[in-house]
Structures are given as structure tokens and as C-alpha cells.
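2024-03-11 09:14:02 INFO receiving multi-entity request
2024-03-11 09:14:02 INFO entity count = two
2024-03-11 09:14:03 INFO echoing inputs for audit
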Amino acid sequence: MKILIVDDHALFRAGLRMLLATIGHNVVCLESASITDALALIGQHEDLQLCLLDLSLKNEHGLGAIQRIKQDAPHVAVVVVSGADDSATIRSCIDAGAMSFIPKSVAPEVLTQALQHVLSGAVYMPEQILSVMQDMPESVKLTPRQMQVLQALSRGLPTKLIARELDLSEHTVKDHIAMLFQALGASNRTEAVIKASQLRLQESFAVRG
Amino acid sequence: MKSPPWDDDQRAEPGREMLIEVIGLHAQAMLRMPWVQSCLVLGLGLCIFTRVDARVFVGWAAITIGVEFLRARYARHVLKRGYDVDPRRTHAVFVVLAAASGASIAVGVVLFLPRLPILYQALYGAILFAIPAAGIAVSQSSRNILAAYAICMLLPAAVTWGVVYPSQALGVGALTVLYCVVIILVAADGEKLLLRSVTIRHQRDRLVRDLEQRNTDVRAAMGQAEQSAKARARVLAAASHDLRQPLHALSVYSAVLASKPAPDLLNEVSVNIDQIVRALGNLLNGLLDLSRLSAGNYVPEHQQLSLDTLIAGVCTEYSQAAAHKGLTLVQDLQPVRIMGDAVAVGRIARNLIDNAIKYTDAGEVRVLTHMDDTHAVPVAVLRVCDTGKGIPQAEQAKIFEEFYQLDNPGRDRSKGVGLGLAIVQRLCELVDARIHVDSTLGEGTEFRVTMAAVASAPAAAPDEGMAVSWASLEGRRCYVVDDERDIRNSMRALLGVWGVQTSTADSVQEADALFAQHGSPDLLIVDLRLAGEEHGAHLADRLQNRHGAFPVLIITGETSSDALRDAQERGYMLLQKPIAAEVLRRSIINILGAR
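2024-03-11 09:21:47 INFO inference complete, emitting structure
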């Protein structure tokens, strides 16, 4: 699995690379210190699946970067790894298309756990954002198809690409999304993604093939 | 309250100001006088023209109106020059002109009065005596002008009357004098009134100026307070970012280690952790230094030292770093002796040279010391020049701010923490040195530090600093009193390395026991804050009272408190935690060597 780490602190990048190499299997890491470099790397590596992105980068804020990455390469799942940990920032990252949010301030074992989640294709959200969400409906039962749609939605894919990936019509995908929102008690993508983190999605990124 | 600068010049001013006031008003009145005089002459002419020689009358009329024109002309000149005129001189001229005007009327009396019938004489006399009364107003209560005018007019008239009617001479003379005295007194009263109003106006103006000045002061003070609050907030924000960044990175490495990494990763992990910890340590030390310097807890020494020797030592420290970057470290150190603090000046040089090396990619870093003889007092100069990329003009003022770094908006801390120049500036303030930066983009930067030099170098005195740093501590006895076990243990270990025999105590009681058993030590090291609100300096005082004098070194983690000053005022040497081994060693040698 190919992962891009975008952070302007070289030592942090190196640490993250080593951690991913240790806990993941066949992980290949690319590194960049700026958005411009990151976009160039994304263009060169078609098989890139995951981008770990810092929000406070030289001269630019990472929030716009999420949108630019999703625009250039919608299939790359963006996971924000940031020094910030307030719920407003977390929400706006998910709104912008991020799949997960890992605060840098979490304890080492939580960091490892969060990255393992992310590597497995699941959504990770910090505790504080879950506590402000409404409780999950008791025992959510999703069909395998709905799980696939939720996973694709979490990765920030637009409906058209979800349809292509799952070999369904856009109309069917929209129906699935509506059913999914109802089952999760979510009213938009952001809420659905946050709730997905509680489902501990175990689907792999390999779904995409 | 401080008086505004102009206050002293103008304290005796109401008199002068009043004179200017009088001159102004009088000059205004003078502008009308030719016409008033013409009317007076016309009226007088209608009354007596048939009784006197026409040519004589016309001649007199021309003279008297001419005098008024002269007065008006001068008045116009005075008004045009405004406050430029010399008030005393101008006033004197007005007095003379008033005398001339009065005299010109008196000439008419002398010429015409004796030739007139009695009825016309009486009328003439009444008109004459009425004129000076109006003069009080015209003279604007200046008694000098009025006196000159009235006396020069009425005295000749009275004499003429006395000559014509000798029997009335005494009575007319006495009445004329009385009249003159009365109108002059009235004018004097008016003058006093005017003076008072001018004084009041003067006071009001000063009050307004004072208020304005105070407003400006208050605004300036508020601006300054606001700015320093902003600066503090900026430092705090930057510091918290810079402290958290390495902590986050450490947390990642901790996670790496916990997840049992491949053995070949371990080396990189340890190198990286080491880098982070170093950066963090530098940052913390920088912050502590800044805080110590700002809180006024650092008392610079004031001793004669050789600047070139000091700087040569600093250059040696950096020769390797420069060589590592492929830079030439050029030293051009002329002998200069200064009065100052070796630690502070050394630190200034260190930070400047460190920066120069950091921001120069190719070329050389040149360090110079020399005297500057162009000043009245001898000035020592330390210059650090590099061939780096230079500092843009607009940024030159900002480089001394905390956490400001050129070309490092991403705050990559491998480039240093951004506190170096802020510390340099504080140190310069402390040792009365001035720092000046001169830089051209793409060519390089020169930092120039100037400080007071000692005029003549005394015959090569041995450098005390060098001598002490090699002194041995072998066999010295030291007590360490600290309530933290870790500190006691590390102190004992460190001092042991230097051959110092160390005993430790964790409380006042234990310290007392040590003294009772082994007597006084060569040195007592005590923490400023001991358990149970005990103050280290007070403890040292008590022990000295009980067991006789011995040297004391106080260590503390506090950076700004009254307790610090307290300790320093007692003359105890103070070291701030974290204490580098080298600093501790030098301090101990200083204390023990000084005895």
C-alpha cells in the first residue's frame, strides 16, 4: 500500500514513516513538506491510496489542501494528522472530504491504534467529536452493499465514482446513501463519516482493486 | 509631575505678554487716529478759524495731523510684524510718539490761545482737558503712553494760560497737575486689570498644554503596554507551538518503539529522538534565559576583561561548525579591553557567530574586534560579518523579536528556535552595549556591537578566567541540601566526578545534623525552595549564624520572584535550573577561588 505523508516537520514525518512501516504490511511511504510537492507526487503515483496530511503547513493551510487533493485525485483517502484537536476543525476537515482525523496530541498507543484503523480502511475519529454527536441508533445493521457504499463515502468519493467502483448506477448509489443515512441517523456525509468511525469498518482499501 | 519644557522660559512672561497685548491694542487704536485728529482739527478750526492767522492754523493742522499719520504708519508696521517686535522698544517708540502727538496739540495752544477772545479760550480749554480722558481708552491703559501724551499736551497749555492770566497761574497749574495724576492713576488701574486677565489667560494656556502633554504621555504609555502585552501573547503562542511540535514528534517515536520496530530502524529512531530532545532543550533554555533576562534577575558583572581573548575563545568553539559547512571563519582581533560581563558578552558573540554560520551557505564569516577612536570616549567594537543571503530592509527591525526567523515560516526547528537575537538584544541592554545591523540582500550581513572600552591597556594582566577554569576541586567538601532525591543524587554523582567530597541533606534537621557531626563545609549548595515553605537563603543565614561563615551557592527552578532578589541581595550566588555541568563547575571555582 502506498501512502503519502505531508508534514513540514521532517522529524515528525520520519517518525510517522517508521511507525507505518512497523505496523503495516508492505507499506511504501512518500514524503513531502508542502502541498505543491504533495500534488506533484499524487500526480506521479497513480496507485497512491492514502494521504496523511498536516493542517499547518508552510504558507498554506491544509484545509484547502484537502479540497485540492480530492479534486485532483478523488480516489486518494485523506487522513488529517494535526496538532489541532478542536471539534470545529475536525468537522471542517471531514466537510472538506477527509476520511479520518488523528490529533497529534493523542497518546502513543492511541496513535498506533488510529493508524492501524486507517490502514485497515476504517474511519478514525477522536473521542471528543464522538461525544458531541447524537448517540448511534441501537444495533445498526448494514447490508454488505451499504457497508461498501459507506466505506467509499468515507473516503470522500463522489457519487459518480462510487457508482463506477461498485459497478452500480448512480441512481442506485443515491438510494443506498439515503438508506445508509437513515440507518445511521445521519443527515449528511460528515455525520455519516463520524458515525462510521464507531462502526469500526473493517473493509479493506483493497476493495478498489 | 514633570513640567513641560517651555514652562521655565515663560514663567516671567505675563509682563512681556501684557506689553505685547498693550502694544497690539494701542497700534489698532492708532490706525484710526489720523481721522480722529483730522475731525478734531476741523472742529477746532470751525470754532477759531476766523480769529487766527489762517496760514499759521493750516501749518499747525498739517503738523499735528502729520504726527498722527506717522503714529498710524508705525502702528501698521508693528501690527504687520506681530510678535516679532521687541515689545519694550516698540512701547518706548509709542511713548515718544504719544509725547510728540501731545506736544503738537500743545503747539496749537501756545500759538492760538493768547489771540482768542475769552469765550473761545474757555471752549479751547474745555476741549483740551477732555482729550486726555479719551486718551485713557486710546492708550489702552498704558500709563506711560498716557502720561507722555497728557503731560506734553496739558503742561504747555497750563503754562500758556498762566502767562495770559497770571492771577490764575497757581490754580490752573495745581488743577492740571491733579488732573494728570488722576488720569494716570486710572490708567494704572486699567493696566493692573489687563495684567490680571493676561495672567489668567496665560495660566489657562499652560493648563491646556499640560493636559495635552499628559494625554499624550498616557496614550504613549497605553500604546506601549498594549504592545508589550501583544508581544507577550505572541511569544506565548509561538512558544506553545514550538514546544508542542517536538512533543508530538516524540510521541510518534514512542509509538514506534512500543510497536517493536525492525532492529535496523532503531538507530534512526535514536538519532531522531536525540535531535528532537536537543532542539527542545535549546528552546527551553532559550526561553528560560529570556525570562531570566527580562525579569531583571541577571545582574551583570562589571569587570575589566580582554574582549579579543574572550572572542578568540568563542571563535575556537565555532571553528568546527564553520568548517563543517565549508565556511572560512576569519578572525581579525585587535587587542581591546572593556569593562563588562564576560558571560554576557561571550553569549552575545556566540549567538551572533552561530547565526552567521547558520545563514551563510558559502564564503566566510569574519569576526573582528577593534577600538573606535572617532568618539570622545573610547569605544570597543565587535563585528560579525557574513557572506550570507542578507536581510531585507523591511525585516531588519523584526529580527530581534522573539521567534522571528528569516525564511522559516514553517518553523522548522532544525534551523534553530528563533530566540538567539532576542537574547542578544536583551543582553546588550543589560551590559549597556549597542547593536546595529547592516545588511545587503545577496551580499551579506554585518552585526556591530559597540560598548565602552577601557582607555589604556594595563601591562598584560594574567587572564583570571583562564586560570580558574583549570583549578582543581579535588578534596573540597560540599554539602547539598535539597528536598528532591533525584537532584541530591545527581549532584553527588557530578561533584564526585570532580573529586568533591559531598554529603547531602533533605531537610533543615538533616542539614543541622551534618554541621554538628562534620563542621562547616567548603561550600553549601542549597535549593531556594525547600519542603515546608523553607527558604534556602534563610536556612543558609541561620547555619552561618550558628556555625560561622562559609560559601553558599543557591540553586533554583524559579525564574522571577522576590525570593530570587532576596537571595541575591544577601550576596549568595544563584544558579538557575537546569544547570549545565560546566556552569556549575565554573561557579564553584569562582566561589572557592575568590576566597
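2024-03-11 09:21:48 INFO post-check: The longest strand of chain A covers residues 48-53.
2024-03-11 09:21:48 INFO post-check: The interface with chain B takes residues 8-12, 14-16, 18-19, 21-23, 33, 57-59, 83, 104-109, 111-112 of chain A (CB under 8 Å).
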